[in-house]
Amino acid sequence: MAARAAWEEVVVELVAQRGEALVRYATLLCGNRDDAADLVQDALVRTFGRLRNGFSVESAEAYVRRAILNGHLDGGRRTTRWRRIAPLEYRPDEQESPAGGVNSRLDLHDELRKLTPRERACLVLRYYDDLKVDDIAETLGISSGAVKRYLSDGLAKMAISLADDGTVEDRLTPRPAGSSSSRKEASHGHRI
Question: Residue 5: pLDDT above 80?
Fold first, then answer.
């Protein structure tokens, strides 16, 4: 009975101290706060489902974060399989927020949601958890080259989608040599 009380105290303390951070982490992975709360709850159940002794809050948080990541990746695999079967996916209508900063954050979350589960996991582990490529590879059980590819592909997709100044097309279109000076001439009417 005493062992049960010890692990229950760790769960209560973990949720009190780090619960909101765990939900934010899960939200970055799955893109939806409601789904993130479910992901965190599932991770807590998986981590503490069996009687576990000797956990500190820090070590328990590491196990729960790993369970959140694994749960997200498993859900992504299920979704990918489902998309092969389901011809359409229902998406509810969303209203735009009047606040500019919120719109930018929502745009970022929308773009994260469009990435594959591996790309999203790599980006979150790299830029939210601040892990190095080798650490991400070890965490996900894939090669460092695959992590670099997922990071590159994910960032490229997000950069193209989030660019709103029209310069992406200019950067993606190859120009003949010397075209930048001719553009300056055309815009200013004389040679600089």
Answer: no
